[in-house]
Amino acid sequence: MDLNDDQLLRYSRHILLPEVGVAGQARISDASVLIVGAGGLGCPVALYLGAAGIGRLLLADGDTVDLTNLQRQIGHATVAIGENKADSLARGVRAINPEIEVQPIREALANAALHEAVATVDLVVDASDNFATRHAVNRACVALKKPLVLGAAIGFSGQLAVFDSARAHSPCYHCLFPDHADEPELRCAEAGVFAPLVGVIGAMQAMEALKYLAQVGEPLIGRLLLWDGLRADVRVMKVPRDPACPVCGVGVVQSG
Questions:
Q1: Sign of the CA dihedral 103, 127, 236, 230?
Q2: Range 13-238: architecture per CATH
Q3: What ranges do the domains of the chain cover?
Q4: CB–CB of 46/74 below 8 Å?
Q5: Dist. CA 135–CA 218, nearest whole Å
Q6: pLDDT tens digits, residue range 54-98?
Q7: Cα dihedral sign for 180, 186, 188, 194?
Q8: What H or E segment, with its residue span, contains residue 102?
Q9: Which site in 127, 180, 186, 201 is 20 to 30 Å from 40, CA atoms measured?
Q10: What's the pTM value of the predicted model, to 2 decimals?
Q11: Mind listing the pLDDT tens digit for each residue in 27-40?
Q12: Is 122 in contact with 213 (CB distance < 8 Å)?
C-alpha cells in the first residue's frame, strides 16, 4: 500500500530505521494478525501491533475482565470489569490508532472457527494461557502454513518462540512440547505472575511479529528464548524439527 501523509508522520520513527523504511512499514500496514488471547500477553501484543500500524487485527477471547486481571492486563481498565476481553482490548487499540481495522472475536476459538480465523491472516500470535489452546493453534498454523509467534509467562519466568511451517527446517510447537493431554499445568490463579513479566514477553512477541512481517532481522525460528525475571537472565536454546512429529513431521498429511 502507499502510505499517506498522516501515516508517514505517524510511523516516521519506524521509517527512519534503515532496516524498515517506507517499504517495511507498508508491509506492516498491509498485514493482518490474529491474536489468540486478550489477557496478560495479548494486551501488550495488541497495543504495540496496533500502534505500529498493523492493517487488520483479530482479537479472540471468550473470557470477561475480572478484578484480578487488572494487576497485569494493561489493555483493560477498571470500568471494563465484566466486559468481554476482546471487546475491551479492541477499544483500547482503537484509542491508540483509529485508522486500523480491529475485529474482536468474543469466543475461545476452536475447530472450524479457529481454522477459519487462521486462514484469513498473515500471522498468528498465541497469547493464550493453556496447553490445549496452544496445541490447537499450532495444528491450525501447521496445516495452513501460517507463521506462529508464541509466548508464555508464569511466576517470574517467560518463554518465547517463533514457528513457520512454510520453512522446511522449522520445528512446530509440538516438536518442542509434545501434547500430553493429561499433564497438569500451572495457571496464574494458582502460581501467580509478576506483573511486568507479561509486558516483557508480550512486547517481545510484538517485536518478533513486526520483524517477520516487515522482513527485517532474524526471527526466532528454531530457537526458544527463556527469560528469568528474578535474575534478569536470558538463555536461547536451539530447537530442532522432530522428523517423527505427528503434527509437522515428514510424511504427515496436512489438512486445511
A1: positive
A2: 3-Layer(aba) Sandwich (3.40)
A3: 13-238
A4: no
A5: 25
A6: 999 999 999 999 999 999 999 999 999 999 999 999 999 999 999
A7: negative
A8: strand 101-105
A9: 180
A10: 0.94
A11: 999 999 999 999 99
A12: yes
